[in-house]
Amino acid sequence: MRIHFIQHVPFEDPASILDWAEKKKYPVTSGRAYANDPYPGINEFDMLVIMGGPMSVNDEHVLPWLITEKEFVKSSINAGKFVLGICLGAQLIASVLGAIIKPNKYKEIGWFPIKFNEIECERLKLPFKGELMTFHWHGDTFDLPQSSSLLASSHACANQAFAVGNSVFGFQFHLEANKHSVDRLIFHCENELDDSLYVQNKDEITSRMQYSVSTNSVMESFLDWIDEKL
Hints:
By secondary structure, this protein is α/β, with parallel strands linked by helices. The protein is 32% helix and 27% strand.
C-alpha cells in the first residue's frame, strides 16, 4: 500500500498511522497543503490521509490553497482511492461532496466517548462497536454528505464519523492521537482551552493519555481492514 498524507500545519502529523505504515514497511509520501507542495499523480498512491488543522474549510478567501486541495481530494475520491479524513480532513471530504461545514453547538476538546452506529459498522464489516473513549479537538462540524452512512456520534457532536461506500471515511475524532501529537496540539493551541462544557483543561487532557492505547489499537484495526481490501 502506498500512502500519501496531506498536512495543514506542521504540528498535526499522522502519529500512530505513520507508526502502522512504518511497521508494515509501506512507502509513505506527504505534502504540506499550506506550503503549496505539489500533489502526487493519481496513480502514485493507493490511500490518501488528510490530517487536521485549526483553519476552517470555508477559509478559501484567505487560504487559497484550500481550493487546490479540495480539487485533489475530489479527484482522489472519483478515482476510487481509499480516502481517510481526520478532523479538518473529514470536513474537507464532506465539503467536496456537497455537505455544509458549520460551527458545532459546542467546542469539543479532550477525551470524550463516542458511540459507534453498530448497524452501519456491521453492514460495512468495520472493526468498530460499542463506545470508545477517544480524543477530540474541533469547533466545527459537518452535515452528512449525500449517500453517506453515519458511523459514530458523541454527546457534544451528532455527526462524528461517516462513510461513503466502503472506501471514503471521515472521522471528526483523533484515533491516531498519541502523547507526542497531543502535546504538540496543546503547545500550539492552548488558547482554545476555554473551560467551556466540553473542553478539558491541559491537566485533564494529559492525565487521560492512557486512552491512546485503545484508540490507537482501533485505528490499527481499521487500517488492517483497509489493507485487506487492497
